[in-house]
Amino acid sequence: MLLPPSHSNLKSKIAMIQQTVSAPEVYQGQFGTFTITEGDRTGVIIYRAGLMVAALCFAIGSALALLNNNPDFKLLTPLFACFSLALGVSLLTIHIYMASLHRLLQVFWLIGSVTSVMLALSSSEPLAVTVYTQPVTLLGVGFIFATLTGIYFKEAFCFNRLETKILMPIVPLLLLGHMLRVLPIQGEKILLGLWAILFVVFAVRKVVQAIPADIGDKSVFEYLKAQRS
C-alpha cells in the first residue's frame, strides 16, 4: 500500500536529514581527503584528559612544596605517580607525524618511570627528597620531564602556543640548573611556580580547542605509513 504523497515526501526528507547527520565530514589533506572517526575523537579526548590530570597533579604537588613551610613530602610520591601515569596515557594517543619521535618520547617516559620506581623502592626517604638532595638522580628521572618538554615542543610548533613556548626552556633550565647547583633556591621556586601555573593554563586551553586540530592531517599519516612499508 502506497503512502500518501505528503507522507512520502516527509519520509524522504527525514532520510536525507539522517544521511546528512550520519555522513562524516570530509577534510582535504596534503595527500588526499580523509574523515575523522569517533575513535579519532576519543583518542584526542583521552590525550587531553591525561594532560589535565598530569597538570593538576603537578600543580598540587608544587603548591604543597612551595606554599607549606613544613610539607609532607610523602604526599608527593603518589602525586608524582599519578602525574607520570597520566602522561603515559597521553603518549598513547598523541598525534605526531614522525613515528620515530613518538616512540622516542615513549621510551623516555619508560626510562624515567622505571628509574622513579626503583628510587622510590630503594630509598627510605620520599622520592621528592631523594631527587632533590641527590641531583644526579635527574639523569634517570629527568627523562619523564624530557618527554613532557617534547609535548610542549610539539604543541608550540603545531599551534604556536605562548605558554608552551615559555615552558620549553623553563623545564631544562630548572632541572639542569638544580643538577649543576647553579640556581639559587629562590630562583628554583620561581621557575617551579611558573611551570605549574603555565602547565595548568596549557591543559585548560587544550580542553576548549577544536578536536580536529589535535588529530591533524590524516593523509600525512597514511603517506608516511606507506613510505615505511
What number is the mean pLDDT? 89
Envelope shape: elongated
User: In percent terms, what proportion of residues is strand?
Assistant: under 5%
Q: Separation of termini?
A: 56 Å
Low-confidence stretches at least 5 residues in length (pLDDT < 50)?
17-21
Count of runs of 4 or more consecutive helical residues = 10
Number of β-strand runs: 2
State the major sheet. Answer: 2 strands, antiparallel
Radius of gyration: 23 Å
Helix and strand sequence: HEEHHHHHHHHH
Fraction of helical residues = over 70%
Going by helix content, strand content and strand pairing, the class is mainly alpha
Q: Name the strands of the widest sheet in spatial order.
A: 1-2
Number of domains: 1
Oligomer: single chain
Short overview:
This protein is mainly alpha-helical and 229 residues long. The chain is built from 10 helices and 2 strands. A two-stranded antiparallel ribbon has the order 1-2.
